[in-house]
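Shift notes (night). Ran dolichyl-phosphate beta-glucosyltransferase while the centrifuge was going.
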Amino acid sequence: MEEYMYLLVNFFLIAVVGFIFVVIVEAYRRRNNHLHVEVPAIFEDPNSLKQVPCPHVVDPAEKYMSLIIPAFNEEHRLPGALEETMNYLQQRASKDPSFSYEVVIIDDGSADGTKRVAFEFVRKYTVDKVRVILLGRNHGKGEAIRKGILHSRGELILMLDADGATKVTDLEKLENQIQVIAKKQFQQGKSSPSDPTFRVSDIPVAAFGSRAHLEEKALATRKWYRNFLMKGFHLVVLLAAGPGVRDTQCGFKMFTRAAARRLFSNVRLRRWCFDVELVFLCKWFRIPISEISVNWSEIPGSKVNLMSIPNMLWELVLMSAGYRTGMWRISGST
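Came back to this:
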């Protein structure tokens, strides 16, 4: 019996050491994921077939707001969400001439008609209003959003899902909160609250849409094992990124240009858990985060399933190892 326990303990220790070794190797392999060694993004005008100059988030803002929409095999859900989004943006621009915008769609290696749908909207609204980035192969939602944000032109940058699960009009809740926080930060040490040099794009602030107010209803309707897995995931998120944000995974988030510049030049996770990494980086840079309740509805066709949970946990382990060992160095982009 003692010999059996001895073998069992040794096997367990070997397994733990092996797991730690694999984590360290994989974290090291991903240390340069944020450097963008892929082919540079190119915008093409489908009407003239001419290439359009590609901006970068380090450049001065040219629009008031950028909306970033990652899309992977969204041929059926994307048209409705885009129509609703464009209708809102056009109506707002007609009422406020100072409101300028762009929508950037990132096709993350789709195998269906997503590219065709996206370019139909470019033709309809012009390449100044709607732009498409083609990643060629599937990299993951995090990488698609990062690529779109790095090549956006807005003072404020909103990421939102292609399914339209969150009403686009709720962006005003995030926008208003960012304006309030940015002005407070700018006014610290200023004698005049109406200083003409104030630009919201220069103040690092983030606002996260949240479905936490819907959690009680979700707990009542989900299967027990789904609730168990989600609670476990939230615990791991708490350990990896710390407290402060109840819903890290809502796909409706807004950043000022200054915040986006710092965050997305450092993000390394390319799939579902990049949201958690954003929370970690916000805390590292001391970028204030506001969590704001948004209207959200379940849309059929979600890409997230039970098998996604182990992959998400694996990414969180890699993130913790990468940052805590210093392998993932954070650059202080300004």
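The mean pLDDT is 84. Residues 233 and 310 are 9 Å apart (CA to CA).
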